[in-house]
Amino acid sequence: MKGQLIRCGGNMDDTLFCHIIRVSNNNNKYIDSYCNDYIEDYYLVPINDVYMIFVRSELSKGVVNNKKSNKKELNTQTLYVTLGETTVILDKVTDYIHINVTSQTPNEITTNLFSQLSNQKQILVTFSSSKGVLFVHYLCRNGFITTSKIVCISNATCENGIFDSTKRKCQKCQDTNCAKCTYDNQIEICQKCDSPYDLYDNICMKHLNCKFSDGNTCIVCNDGYIIKNKVCVKLDGKCQIERNGLCELCDPIFSSLISISGECKSIENEIKHSAQSVVECNKGYISNSSFCNKCDLIQDNCDICESGHCTKCFSSFLISQNSKCESLTCDTINNTFKDQNGNCLPDITNCEIVVNKKCVKCIDNCILENDTCITNYNNTFCAVGTSLGCTRCINGFYYSYNTKTCERCNSNCQTCLSQSICLSCNEGMFLSDHVCKSNDELKDSCKKFSNTGSGCYQCNDGYYRNRVDCKRCDISCDTCLRASDCFTCNSTNFKDFSGNCKPQTSINGCAVQVTQNGCSICKPGYYSTNNECGICSNNCKECTLYNKCYSCQDDYILINNEYKIYS
């Protein structure tokens, strides 16, 4: 009490019970003030639905303390998991807890969950450890414990050496120059060697003439050596430029040599080469930049190739448009035939000519429809057909070049060129801009209907005739010949000299009422021009044009058609 440790129990032993109430920032938080992660001889007791705890072993010394433990033996009914020197009591755990183990060396795991848990209470314990947890003959990184077994999810490996399942610890490999190894059928296999040794046939050997190694193979050889079959070998004098153990440029004295994969080699059947690649090969061979291969190895059934393309095929084969060798004969068993491009294709019934896998001409007594040859004319709506296809459809249908069939016209059309272009209309309809319209649409615009009953031949005022249809005039017109070509203007407009209808209010200086014909008499100071009034020049009382004055304002006199101030 008051910060002092009080031990309870009849035997007054040194056993400590450290109760964990939560975990914060990867640290256990204890309800007991005397507990921390560095004390010895204690039991960890998670309570209050704690689902994860941390077990830290050998934090202070880095090794297990070998002194005799003063911990009191637990009651046989107590549930626990022991990891190394630390025991976790699970009596307060409801159903699940995760134990994160931090230690310098692997910890052995033991538990009595198998024998103590009843069917009424089930607990799942998961654990993880970077160094590994020891159980049975395994070193486990992650696993879990159930009421019946311990299961390892992922194995751990030793940082150096190998895990000895008998001694149950990490120890050095048998090969003293091996840094990391494993077992395969009870035989030790080295995985990585200590520097400056490299791995050859499971043996760590010192690599001669190697400048840099990754522990498995040499990466860079000493000057004057190149890597060949993972070994540094001396240059043969044929290399002019060498870098990092690889020949980049062969000596020009050896004109037939080329640097391939860091070695100077002579390439058979090559005609032309650069410093590091084959440019051109003999006929019958093709370059893959490193070697000259026979044409038929690169392209099936090719006999002669040039510039990477086949120019001649073996007998019974023909070069197709994509430069491939295709068979001259087709498979009659699978009912195939050769089209105009030389391709073997499945037979198209009743087809005489095929181009690009599509039928373009049928045999006699068949017509072509949608790339198919058919004999039943009644279902095609075709009036006149040939082996090349339909040339004319029956009334009410048109030929579609997209579907290559006779498609139905618009319901108002009698004949048509397409769905949107009518040529003639059904009774009671008239044709306007290739569209069939009902006569009812003309009742407000037509003055006299056609004797045939289809369309109008005289339109009401405010409309003009467009074939047998009536179109509305421009809003400024009373009557018109075309949309904007007014014959007479409406009551609020007048026709100017150009024949356009303009608002009567646009005329200034009119002495009388403006009519549809414009202004007939202008006010003093204005002159009449083309049914409109133009203003005279300043101080001019009457004029015939802007600068043609024949009467001046008071105090002015007229001299040579110009006004002067009278004084």
UniProtKB/TrEMBL annotation:
Gene3D superfamilies: Hormone Receptor, Insulin-like Growth Factor Receptor 1, Chain A, domain 2. It comes from the Eukaryota. SUPFAM superfamilies: Growth factor receptor domain. PANTHER family: PALMITOYLTRANSFERASE, PROTEIN KINASE DOMAIN CONTAINING PROTEIN. This is Protein serine/threonine kinase. It comes from Entamoeba invadens IP1. The lineage of its organism: Eukaryota, Amoebozoa, Evosea, Archamoebae, Mastigamoebida.
